[in-house]
């Protein structure tokens, strides 16, 4: 096996691993509000999201083309395709670190940051097309959450004015509507994030001479990327789902429906235009907007921590990508192997730490914060619930809310 082919194989495998982490990191974007309101049971939510992520990834390739043809100087990358692997390694480590803390940071920005840092380290600043980065990544990242939040706030305000959401029948209608709107978010997520890995694999195939410049992703790239993000989504990403569903705003079915509908429209529009947008930013802005629109309490402290994570994701991933690029590109095959070892060790340490206070489908709604320290969380110091117990709790909670709603109206 030639050195170039070895690097290409490593990049393809690493890209699919990143796609898997993207799936479980962003599964909360589609289903956190539906799980929080009981519209979906946790297990059913991730299954539906996983299937629709795969379907969505097969529908479009516009975002993939932005990454494979627009962000970097292909001629410079051809000299060192290992830099793409280094960028992916940085993105994976950042995704795992933010997952550990339950922070819904952007997997997209982790990917872009890792790639940008790796390219700058190996090929210089001229290797990045900064016009594309600013117009299709930075500016949309600043504008999209504000637009989604404003639209979500308006939709929530309208819902609570004309549909009597506290009425038992209205609650049922909105909860059923959430099943459709959350499914649409999952489909839209696949059309956006599912394509980013396709773009990275296509980028390295072109750089290594295995694909003609200017062509789109091969069918096997599309299928493999869609399957990887689907499997990642099915694994749950429960730590981030807790933050999105419980830690930011208390969500009722009308709010969940409003936020999911606005998120779907924003994500599909950005995918159609080829914007490599963060679905996390859009969905978080929509959830925040529901709290503002309803006038309920918003945990601004949690949002502040999320905001900081948003700001530092791209530069921090770029630093990690630059370090791994220095090792992989300068060290040749041995350097690439060294980065693989570092990636495996780092991933193992993070997953081991998360195991001290595990969040899964049975306890995702039991608290509104994620515990990272080794000491036991008193709220979670018990045996995990079975799937039937979780379903029963959701049914009881829904019935109690419906019985209480007429009393609230009469006060």
TrEMBL record:
<feature type="transmembrane region" description="Helical">
    <location>
        <begin position="219"/>
        <end position="238"/>
    </location>
</feature>
<keyword id="KW-1133">Transmembrane helix</keyword>
<keyword id="KW-0472">Membrane</keyword>
<dbReference type="InterPro" id="IPR001204">
    <property type="entry name" value="Phos_transporter"/>
</dbReference>
<feature type="transmembrane region" description="Helical">
    <location>
        <begin position="137"/>
        <end position="160"/>
    </location>
</feature>
<feature type="transmembrane region" description="Helical">
    <location>
        <begin position="46"/>
        <end position="64"/>
    </location>
</feature>
<comment type="similarity">
    <text>Belongs to the inorganic phosphate transporter (PiT) (TC 2.A.20) family.</text>
</comment>
<feature type="transmembrane region" description="Helical">
    <location>
        <begin position="76"/>
        <end position="101"/>
    </location>
</feature>
<keyword id="KW-0812">Transmembrane</keyword>
<feature type="transmembrane region" description="Helical">
    <location>
        <begin position="107"/>
        <end position="125"/>
    </location>
</feature>
<keyword id="KW-0813">Transport</keyword>
<dbReference type="GO" id="GO:0035435">
    <property type="term" value="P:phosphate ion transmembrane transport"/>
</dbReference>
<keyword id="KW-0592">Phosphate transport</keyword>
<feature type="transmembrane region" description="Helical">
    <location>
        <begin position="307"/>
        <end position="327"/>
    </location>
</feature>
<dbReference type="Pfam" id="PF01384">
    <property type="entry name" value="PHO4"/>
</dbReference>
<dbReference type="GO" id="GO:0005315">
    <property type="term" value="F:phosphate transmembrane transporter activity"/>
</dbReference>
<dbReference type="GO" id="GO:0016020">
    <property type="term" value="C:membrane"/>
</dbReference>
<protein>
    <recommendedName>
        <fullName>Phosphate transporter</fullName>
    </recommendedName>
</protein>
<feature type="transmembrane region" description="Helical">
    <location>
        <begin position="333"/>
        <end position="351"/>
    </location>
</feature>
């Amino acid at each position: 096996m030639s050195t170039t082919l070895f690097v290409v194989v490593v990049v393809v495998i690493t890209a699919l691993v990143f796609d898997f982490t993207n799936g479980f990191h962003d599964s909360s974007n589609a289903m956190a509000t539906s799980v929080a309101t009981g519209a979906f049971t946790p297990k059913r939510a991730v299954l539906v999201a996983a299937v629709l992520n795969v379907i969505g990834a097969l529908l479009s390739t516009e975002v993939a083309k932005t990454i494979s043809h627009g962000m970097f100087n292909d001629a410079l990358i051809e000299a060192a395709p290992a830099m793409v692997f280094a960028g992916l390694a940085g993105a994976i480590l950042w995704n795992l670190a933010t997952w550990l803390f339950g922070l819904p940071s952007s997997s997209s920005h982790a990917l872009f940051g890792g790639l940008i840092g790796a390219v700058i380290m190996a090929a210089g600043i001229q290797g990045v097309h900064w016009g594309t980065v600013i117009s299709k990544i930075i500016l949309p990242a600043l504008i999209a959450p504000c637009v989604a939040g404003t639209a979500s706030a308006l939709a929530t305000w309208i819902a609570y004015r004309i549909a009597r959401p506290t009425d038992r029948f209205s609650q049922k209608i909105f909860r059923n509507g959430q099943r459709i709107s959350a499914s649409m978010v999952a489909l839209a997520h696949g059309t956006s994030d599912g394509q980013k890995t396709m773009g990275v694999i296509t980028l390295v195939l072109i750089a290594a001479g295995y694909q003609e410049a200017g062509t789109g992703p091969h069918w096997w790239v599309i299928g493999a990327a869609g399957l990887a993000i689907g499997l990642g989504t099915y694994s749950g990403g429960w730590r981030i789902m807790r933050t999105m569903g419980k830690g930011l705003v208390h969500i009722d079915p009308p709010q969940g429906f409003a936020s999911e509908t606005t998120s779907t429209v924003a994500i599909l529009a950005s995918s159609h235009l080829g914007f490599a947008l963060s679905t996390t930013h859009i969905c978080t802005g929509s959830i925040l907007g529901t709290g503002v629109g309803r006038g309920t309490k918003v945990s601004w402290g949690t949002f502040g921590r999320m905001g900081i994570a948003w700001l530092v994701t791209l530069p921090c991933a770029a630093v990690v990508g630059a370090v791994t690029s220095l090792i992989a590109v300068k060290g040749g095959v041995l350097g690439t192997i060294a980065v693989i070892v570092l990636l495996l060790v780092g991933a193992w340490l993070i997953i081991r730490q998360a195991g001290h206070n595990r969040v899964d489908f049975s306890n995702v709604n039991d608290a509104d914060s994620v515990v990272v320290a080794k000491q036991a969380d008193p709220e979670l110091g018990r045996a995990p619930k079975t799937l039937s117990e979780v379903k029963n709790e959701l049914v009881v909670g829904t019935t109690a809310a419906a019985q209480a709603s007429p009393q609230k109206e009469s006060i």
